[in-house]
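Example (one chain per record):
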Amino acid sequence: MTTRIITGLVLGALAIVVAAHGGLVLFFVVLALALLAVTEFYRLTRVYRPLPLAGFLGVALMLASAWFFSPTAFVGATAAGVLFTALLGLAVGPKRGVTVRMAVTALGMVYVGLGFGALLLLRPMDENGLILLTVIFGTWAGDTMAYFTGKAFGSTPMAPALSPKKTWEGFAGGAVSTVLLVLLIGLYSPLPLSGSLLLGAVIAVAGPLGDLFESLVKRDVQIKDSGRGVPGHGGVLDRFDALIFAAVAAYFALTLVVGL
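Predicted structure:
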C-alpha cells in the first residue's frame, strides 16, 4: 500500500506539471503512455496473435492528429488505422485466425487511441489545463475512494464474475468523491456549475466501466495484471483503464452538451 500511495503521489505531481505546461511535453508524455498501454494490451491478448505494427502506427497517427490538427483529423486517423489493420491482414493472407487477429488489433488500437487521444483533445479547452486535470484527478479520486469505501463498507458485489472485490457501496463512495472533487476544482475552472455537475457524473459512471472493461479482458485471458511498469499499480493499463473511458466520455459531454 505504501508503494501504491507513493506512486500515486508521483503520478499526480507529474500530471499537474505536464498538463499545465502543455505543448510538446504533454504530447510526447501521452504518446509514450499510449504506446506502453497498447503494448500491454497486445501482450495480454497474445493468445489471439494480434498484429502490433498496425496498432502502434494507428495509435501514433491518432494522437498526432488529435494534437497537431483537429478532432475531425482524429476521427480520420482512427479510420485510417482500422484500414491499415485490414491491409496488414491482407498481407498475412488467409491463414487460420486472421479475422480474429485483425479484430483484436483494431480493438486495442481504438481502445487505447481514443482514450489517450481524448486526453490531448481536453487540454486546449482552457488556458491552464485545469479541465484536463479535473478529469484526471476526478477519475483517480473515484477509483481511490471506491477502493477504501468498498473495503470498509462493501457487501453487495457489483460485478462478481469480472471483479469480485468491487461493490456497489464502493461505487457509491467513489461516485460521491468524484462529483465533490470535480465541483471543488470547478470553482477555479471556466466550467459553469451545471457543467461541473455533468462532468462529475459522467466521470463517476465512465471510470468504473473502464475498470470493468479491462477486468473483462484480463479474465478472458486469465492474466492478473497488464504489466509491472507502475509500482504498486501493475501496468499502465491497470492505472489508466478508468481514465481511458472517462476521458472519452468527458470530451463528448463537454463538447456536445456544455459546448466547449
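Caption: The beta strands are 157-159, 163-167.
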